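Annex B.
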Amino acid sequence: MKDWLMEHKSYAVAVALLVVVLIFYFYQNGASEAIQPQPLATDQVSEAGSIQEKSDEIMGKKQSQTAPVIMVDVKGQVKQPGVYKASEGERVIDVVSRAGGVTEQAEQGQVNFAERVKDEMVIYIPAKGEGAVVLPEASGNGVMVSGGTGQNEGKINLNKAEVNELQNLPGIGPAKAAAIIDYRETSGPFKRAEDLKNVSGIGEKTYEKLKDLVTAP
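Helix-hairpin-helix domain-containing protein: predicted C-alpha cells.
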C-alpha cells in the first residue's frame, strides 16, 4: 500500500486539492444564498412606499382646501371700524377682536358674539342707551346681516316705517322718529338716505350711524 501511494503521490495530491476546492466552493455558495434579500421583503418596502405617497397626497389635498374668504363690515362702538376679511365658520367675536375690540361705550348686552359670520355681513355694535337695532333673519341683537340677494335687504325704508320701527334705529327716540315722519309728510318721500340730515335733530354724527341701516328708494 505504501509503495502504491508513493507511486501515485501526484494523483493523491490532486484529489485532495479537488476536495478542498469543492468544499470551499459549496461553503461560499451557501453563504451567498443565506444573505440574498427575500423578494417578499422588497415587495413590502415598495408597498409601504406607495402607501406613504398616497397618504402625503391626501394630506396635501386637505391642506389646499382652505375655507373661502368672506368680507364683513364692522361698525359702531369698535376701536377700528372697517371692512375685514374673515373665514366661513368664524364668529362675531373673532371679527370684532380683529377690529380692536369694543369701546367702553359699547352696549355688549345687545350683541350675539357667538353668531357665525356670513359674506357681506354688517356687524353693528350699539352704544349704551341706544335702542335695539332692527335685525333681518334670526340674527343676534346688535348685528345686522346684509344678505347677498339685494343691496337693501334688512334695511328700514324711511318712506314706509312707522314710529315704533324707526325707534329701533340707533340714536332715534320718539321725538326724532316723529320728526322723520313729519318730514316725509310735509316735504314728500325721502329720495335718498342722506335726506335724513334735513330732518330736525338729525346731524352728521347721527346720520353716520344710520346711513347703512336705512333705505330711501
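The beta strands are 69-76, 82-87, 121-125, 143-144, 156-157, 214-215. The longest strand covers residues 69-76. Further annotation is deferred to the next reporting cycle.
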